[in-house]
Design a protein that fits this description.
The protein is of the alpha+beta class and 423 residues long. It has 19 helices and 7 strands. A hairpin with a 4-residue loop joins strand 6 and strand 7. The longest helix is centred in the C-terminal third of the chain and has 25 residues.
Length: 423
């Protein structure tokens, strides 16, 4: 074992020195010893040792431009690390990493020799290897661009056959690049397609893309219908692995008497647009309220969060005693906030962060975000509200459209993570 370890270590040194032929020679010299120790079950960490050997060999062969030997080595990786694609939960991280690398390399090699069908088949086999229970991050971060590049070659070879697949791979790459810092689009050929009219038409017609952002002037009714349509698209048309709680939109009736009672309690007049929403739609819950990303307009009957109330009072009712308000503001300032700004709902951004929806005494709408781990983000907003510099600046339609945008964005991200089997 000492000789084998020494040989692999020397191979690594040669690889770092860019002496690729020497690296390959040392790695191949270690192979008979590695095989013998494996047969005798004499290795402390057999998978890690084989993984190191294959990484050294593939890196050297790639630099030496030996595609035949690379293909054979990739096939050896797949034989050494078999996986059950129908049951990946219990697979080891190192097994999946090696198989994904081998399949990606096979796809690149096939694309280079012009066998685009084999290239696409290999890269799709790779992307079917979603995360196991041992993995918690996106396993394809460094492969989205590679997949799009492979599909580009296929599209250039057979445009009619691979158009949808290529545009879909670019669409996902663009989405990931906007969400994940380590995903980049720096291939000039792919960058050019981001402005290609045919791709832009594909993107504009994509069912999720059409529903992701509300159109200018969208009404609150249309915003809720947009969520329903998006939920149907993901849950039914695309068979989302998420549970049904992510797709619900439930309403409970609100009567004029319910609204009048709250107006009397808070000595305020409910804006006509919000009154119309309550009487037409009732209170609203978009997704299970326990889910991060959910939106809630408070009901008429609840032990604590009833329809609408003063800003400070409603935040304290939702969160419990919030010492920050008493520490930062006087009783008179807190009374001013409660008398002039009225919270009627929230979006649950996370367990520690909520965006509270409010209207002011002038009938204008806005939102303010409270993060129990970062009071300093909210404090300047509250101070501005006290000075009259931050009041409601939106219509109810615009506020609801904007918040549904956020709910949908969160749902799309959750759906993507669920399909990858990551938390």
């Amino acid at each position: 074992m000492t000789n084998m370890t020494a040989l692999l270590r020397k191979a690594g040194v040669q690889l770092r020195k860019k002496e690729y032929a020497a690296c390959l020679a040392f790695a191949d010299a270690a192979l008979p010893i590695l095989e013998e120790l494996s047969d005798d079950d004499a290795l402390d960490d057999e998978d890690a040792t084989w993984s190191a050997y294959f990484q050294l060999r593939l890196a050297s062969l790639d630099k030496l431009d030996l595609p035949g030997d690379m293909t054979a080595t990739c096939e050896a990786v797949l034989e050494r690390f078999p996986v059950d694609q129908d049951d990946l939960d219990d697979e080891e991280r190192i097994t999946l990493a090696n198989v994904r690398t081998a399949l990606t390399s096979l796809a690149v090699l096939a694309a280079r020799r012009g066998d685009v069908d084999a290239a696409v088949e290999s890269i799709e086999r790779c992307f079917r290897l979603v995360a196991s229970d041992a993995e918690h991050d996106d396993p394809f971060v460094d492969r989205y661009q590679q997949r799009a590049s492979i599909y580009l070659r296929a599209y250039q070879s057979a445009p009619q056959r691979y158009r949808e697949g290529f545009f879909a791979s670019v669409y996902q790459l663009e989405y990931k690049a906007g969400k994940v810092h380590d995903v980049r689009i720096d291939d000039a050929a792919l960058v050019a397609y981001l402005a290609d009219p045919a791709y832009l038409a594909f993107k504009a017609s994509h069912p999720v893309e059409r529903l992701r952002i509300g159109a200018a002037g969208e009404t609150w009714q249309a915003a809720l219908e947009r969520f329903r349509a998006l939920a149907h698209q993901l849950r039914v048309a695309q068979d989302s692995p998420l549970c049904d709680a992510h797709f619900t939109l439930e309403c409970k009736p609100v009567t004029p008497a319910d609204l009048d009672a709250r107006e009397q309690k808070w000595a305020c007049k409910l804006p006509a647009a919000l009154r119309a929403l309550y009487l037409e739609q009732g209170s609203v819950e978009v997704q299970d309220p326990e889910q991060s990303g959910s939106l809630r307009l408070y009901p008429a009957h609840h032990w604590s969060m009833i329809l609408f109330g003063g800003l400070v009072d409603m935040i304290i009712r939702l969160w419990g005693d919030r010492w920050e308000f008493g520490a930062y503001f006087t009783d008179a300032e807190l009374a001013f906030l409660d008398a002039n700004f009225f919270i009627f709902g929230h979006v649950k951004n996370s367990e520690n962060r909520y965006t509270h929806l409010f209207f002011d005494r002038e009938g204008r709408f806005g939102s303010v975000t409270y993060d129990q781990d970062d009071w300093n983000k909210m404090a300047p907003q509250v101070k501005a509200m006290l000075k009259g510099k931050l009041t409601g600046t939106m219509s109810l339609d615009a506020l609801m459209s904007d918040q549904i945008d956020g709910v949908i964005d969160c749902l799309i991200e959750r759906d993507d993570e669920a399909r990858l089997n990551i938390d």
